[in-house]
Each structure stands twice: as structure tokens, then as C-alpha cells.
Amino acid sequence: MASYKLLLLPGDGIGPEVAEGLKTVLGALKETGLASFETETDLVGGSALDAHGVPLADATLQRAKDADAILLGAVGGPKWAGVPYENRPEAGLLRLRKDLDLFANLRPAICYPALAEASALKRDLVEGLDIMIVRELTGGVYFGEPKEITSLPDGGKRAVDTQVYTSAEIERITHVAFDLAAKRSGRVASAEKHNVMKTGVLWKEVVTRVHAEHYAHLELEHVLADNCAMQLVRRPKQFDVLVMDNLFGDVLSDIAAMLTGSLGMLPSASLGAVDDKGLRRALYEPVHGSAPDIAGQDKANPIAMIGSLAMCLRYSFGLGEAADALDGAITDALAGGARTADIATEGTTPIGTKAMAEVIAQAL
Amino acid sequence: MASYKLLLLPGDGIGPEVAEGLKTVLGALKETGLASFETETDLVGGSALDAHGVPLADATLQRAKDADAILLGAVGGPKWAGVPYENRPEAGLLRLRKDLDLFANLRPAICYPALAEASALKRDLVEGLDIMIVRELTGGVYFGEPKEITSLPDGGKRAVDTQVYTSAEIERITHVAFDLAAKRSGRVASAEKHNVMKTGVLWKEVVTRVHAEHYAHLELEHVLADNCAMQLVRRPKQFDVLVMDNLFGDVLSDIAAMLTGSLGMLPSASLGAVDDKGLRRALYEPVHGSAPDIAGQDKANPIAMIGSLAMCLRYSFGLGEAADALDGAITDALAGGARTADIATEGTTPIGTKAMAEVIAQAL
Ligand SMILES: CC(C)[C@H](C(=O)O)[C@@H](O)C(=O)O
Ligand SMILES: CC(C)[C@H](C(=O)O)[C@@H](O)C(=O)O
Question: Which of A53, A239, A294, B303 is positioned for an S-S bond with B265, CB 3.0–4.6 A?
């Protein structure tokens, strides 16, 4: 049995707790003989800032480059509201994404049958929902230059962010979306604002071309990002794979996640390109944030973090069997009635982060 | 009785039909003696492009400047999908906004009790919903330069849009939001991405300062735009007035509108600054778009357009009584069971655009 090198970056807020839950499950996975890991743990975000004065130390970045995969909890919190922009906790995460070239962010939005009632939407609109949002993660307004605040002669200030995309960046994320769609329903919807943005014009043009040249047998639909947000709320099941830029992906994937009623359960993968040796860098993290309001109280749901490991097994190591076993253990735990507070329904008694992780480890 | 000069720009798709409905109501308003108007009609968007080769003729812009208020239907449609970027129908609307300096876009999202069932959200989450989204409309990524597509040495292309905000631009929209909040619940939520964007940093800083200096007795909350989108879906009634930049306002106001189940009923106002003579330029338009799929079939709901006139009476002319009468006529028409197809519920027979406008005119 191969042993993989995992870098675990718990981060801030509820990050350390859900990461502990993950360790419980990693232990159980090893016992079953399904997969084995060497795990290193390091700091990112506010906790790194507190320890090293930067939200991602160079040594941590190097470890991330050397690891077979990275699992991250969450970053940020009100504690660091006053720190300079360059050192804010989020900068650590953004540096990881950019320096490891993790350009493809996969965010599944799945509505678990047991939790359909927890959605704000009517049950029939979300029951069975299974969308995959493919978000470009290393371009756009997140990283474009200039990005600055300058002083004006009148005493005021002027702030600028720059939204930039090259056709090459759009091409590679389009391939990711269609390759996924080929294994799913064969349908891709691409969202942009070509009626207002030049990056939207180029986005639409490139997606159209890549589709025609490589995936003409699959279905492509173009939708304006504002309308897409509306449609996600109105009739989410009309979509299968959605592809969009970094900023629209940030907002629309959060909407999609919230629709499912299972925000605490949704994992995500951030993938790099495949290199000469057939390897690809990858970081896996829950869709939920650091939730400072419940941090340190053993209340957080560890399923998104554990589900991120299942994605890791599947996408980074090709361990489909182990991934299935892990997903199955999560389903079994839920079917057995285990519920953390965020997904507790009437008649169930919520359990804590640790207990949930143990139930899942047992189910393995 | 003063007579006001209205410029009516029906535009494309269902625009001309809902504008006809508006004329029916303008006639009835005159008869009641509540208000009187001189109405001119002109072209904008695709229809202007077809007639004049540009989506907004200079003569039309001049008429818009001379009018006391502008009422616009909708622009755009698949017919003009292939026209050059500079001439697309939307450019006509954007030029109106920019050249008339209509920086404050007010988008109420109201859930009409009779229509709560039409929402995708569970009834108790939206019943009684009454949010006001204040969107900055003449800045940000919509107008910042550079905005271009260039060729790269490798044969590829590079597209750029520029998100720019000055503190002065943020200040004036913040005042609009708080002045509205003072007449409502006194609560403002400001949405941005200060954790990723420098414009978000400046936005948060300026809103915080304007609040402290002028509105310390009112409540201010900062919320990240992605979280705001989530919260709108999860628990929309937590918000009263929301203020945000042009692009976030585009996406989030569409979500808010969709939540209400009454998209075909929501009006909007785009207001300029008050000039030396105490006048302010203003354009009123439905939140819904040109809906090409149902255009020309007498199916569109004219209520958003007629409600836009009610906003015009109130904000541009201070005719509160006439505005109340018009809003009351809309409510009466609905209470009487009048329903266009988009808001038809079981047991009601939908009526057409014309018939709905007539029912409202009668109710006046
Ligand atoms: C934490 C923040 C920088 C991040 C983002 O904006 O990308 C988060 O919202 C996300 O979606 O992963
Ligand atoms: C038609 C389009 C240019 C416009 C916008 O993006 O502002 C529309 O979506 C709106 O919200 O008024």
C-alpha cells in the first residue's frame, strides 16, 4: 500500500477542530488498510500571522510544494480585522492558490436527502440537487495588477482592482469543466457578463471555441452571471456543471452551497495542472469558512473537512474505493441519525465535532 | 396642476408592451387630476440601433437631459447578439446612466402577500419581505479604464476590465443609503470584498467614516459580498437597506428580486445628484429585462413599469398622494384577482398586458 504525504493546515476559527476530526478519520482509514498517509501539520492564516508575522511562512509554502496533497481547514476571523492588507489571514490562502497554480476550484453543491428540509428553498426545488461549480481560482480581479489605493489631489482616495484574463487561462478552466461534464450529464453552463465586461466577451468567445473544437458532442449554454444567480435560486436543478471566473465563482458557489441546506457538509478541491510526471498539485478544503462565532466549542460540523479528504482520495490519488468507503461512512453516520447542531432537525439531539468524527470513523 | 415632461423609452423585447400599459395609466392619472404629463417617446437599445445605427442617438440623450424624468422599458435581445461591443443595446442604457450621472440605483425587493407562494423560498422566510438595495450605478468595473482586449505575442488574447472607486463616489452613495434607512428601519448593511479587493477596503473605510460622522444614531453592519448573497437566500428578512458597488449590486439585487416571487412587479429608480436648482435627473425602469421569449404576445406583466411611475411620482416630483393612489390601484387590482401569467396561481385565469393595465387604470 502506497503511503501519501499530506500537509494538514488547520488554520483559524473552527479549522483546528474540524482538522482534529479529520485526523480521527485518517487513523481509521489506515486501520482498514484502504489508504495510508504521512501527515505533517503547519500553520496558515491568522494563526501563522500570530506565530511568524506572516499569514503563510516560506517554509510552509515549501512543505506545501513537497506534499502530495494539502488539506486546509479555514482562515480568517475578527481577531485580525485590523492587520495590514498584505498580512491579512486570507492572503495566506491566496498565496497558496497562486504559487501552487491551483487554477481549478471544484465546488460540488449537493443536497443530501436527509437534509432537504434544512434548505431555505422549497423541498421539491432542491431535493436531489447535484451541481458542480467550476471556478477559475488564480486569475481575475483577485490577482490582477494594478491593485492599489492612491491619494488624490483633492484629499480623497482612489482604489483600483484589475480584472484580467488571458485566453490560455480561460481555455484550461473550460477543459476542466467539460471533462467533468463528460462524466456527468454532459451539460455545461458558462456564466459571465459579456454585456458589460471585456473579460466576459473573451470568456464567452474562448468557451465557445473550446466547446466547438473539443466537446461538440456535449451541451453548452451561456448565461449572464446576474441571471445565473437568479436561476440558481429559482430552479437550481436546471444546471449540472457551471463554469465561471474567480469573483462570480466566489459569490455564485456560495449561493449554490447555501441552497443545499448543507453548507457544513460541502467539500471543495483546488487543482493545479498535471505536470510532466503526471502529478498535479491539489488543495482540499471545506466550502464553509472559519465561523469564529462557534469556534472552540466542539459545535462545528467536520463532514465538509472529511468529505474534502474523500475528494482528495479520488482526485489526487485515484483511490476510488477508499473515497467511496469514506463517502459511504458519512452517509451511514447521517442515516444512523448523527447530527451536528447546524444540521439538527426536530427530534434529533445534536452531537459535537469530535463525536461526529468518531461516528464516521466507526462506520468505516 | 403642474405638468411634467416625461421621456418614455420603451426599448426592446417586452419594453414597448409594458410602455403601452404605462400610457393607459398615465391617461387615467390625468383624468383623476392627480398629476399631468407631457410625454415624448424615443428609442433606446436594439430598436435605436436598428433605426439610427447606435443604441442611443445624441438627440435622444439631449431629450433625456431636457426631460423632468425618464421612464425606460428594457433593452437587449438575441437579435443583437452579433453586433460590435460598442453598439450592443446595453451600451445605450449604460450611456444614459453615465452621461446623466445617475449614480444611485434604488431597487426595492418587496414580497407581495398575495404572491408569497410564488417564491422559491419557504413562505415564512419571505412573507413581508421589504428590502431596499442601493446600488452604485456609474462607477466600478462597468466604466473603469482600461477596458479592452489585446493580442498577445503567443497568438492568444488578454482582456482587462478595471474596477475603480474614489472616496467621493463611495461617500455620495453611502449618504443615499443612510438617508433612506433613516425613513425606514434605520439599519444599513454594506457589502464588499475587503478581504480580496482594494476597492472593498476603501469602500468599507469610507462607509464606516460617513456613518460615524453623519449617521452615528443609525445602525451599520459590514458583510462580505459572498456571505451577503448567502444570507439573502438563508434569511433575507435580516436586511433592510443594503448598499454595494455596481457589480455586486447587479448580481445581489437580482437575487433579492427573485426571492420575492414577484420579479415582474419590481420597479427601480436611478437617481442623479440634486443640482443648484434643487432638481435631480432620474430614470425609472422595471427590474426585469426585455424577456424576448414572451415579447409581442401580450403576456408581460406591466406592474413593474407602472410601479416605476409610482416611484417617479414620489422621488422626482414629490407627488406622494398620486404615488400612493397608484400603488393602491396596483394593490386593488391584485386583490381583485387580476393576474398576468408570471404571477398566476392555481384557480386564477391569467390576463394579458393590456388588460392588466386597464384594470389598474380603472382602479385609479
Ligand atoms: C477567504 C476568501 C479569500 C475566499 C475567497 O474569496 O476566495 C473565500 O471566500 C472562498 O470562497 O474560498
Ligand atoms: C442590461 C445590463 C447592462 C444591466 C446591468 O448589468 O446593469 C442589467 O443587468 C441591470 O441590472 O440593470
Answer: B303
